[in-house]
Request: fold
Amino acid sequence: DVYKRQDHFFAHMEEIDLCWRLKANSYKLLAVPESEVLHLGGGTLPSGNHKKVFLNVRNSLLTLYKNLPGKNLFSILILRMLLDGVAALKFLFQGEPKSFTGIIKAHLEFYKTKKHYKDQRRSTATFVSPYSLSGYYRRSIIVDYYLRGKRKFSEIKL
Reply:
């Protein structure tokens, strides 16, 4: 089954999913704030590519589904759908119909494939439910970036 293979979940969000699952399994995640990351940006797919939009949206939905505690899942997915709808309309009005379609296709693919991730969700949920969401950013990074103008990690408060 293609959805049970790791290569179905590639290129975007896989490192976030991994960190989330490690934390849920009581591993300690560390960061070095002084480090500098040089990211090629578009190494897999160039910026503005509708396939990149598709993978980012689908994989982030799958990451939320696989890892969020049940009590938070519905409300966060609803909010996410609204924000994706705004982004889709923005693409449409900016004359980027392929990116608009990428978001729609990502949501359809998410609903079609999420059942294949139920086992991963169940195994993570057994670890997730007892632990708190301490160490997670509780605000919307999207709101902070676009509305509050926060462009650097150092500008946000955990």
Notes: The chain has six helices and no strands. The two ends are 39 Å apart (CA to CA).
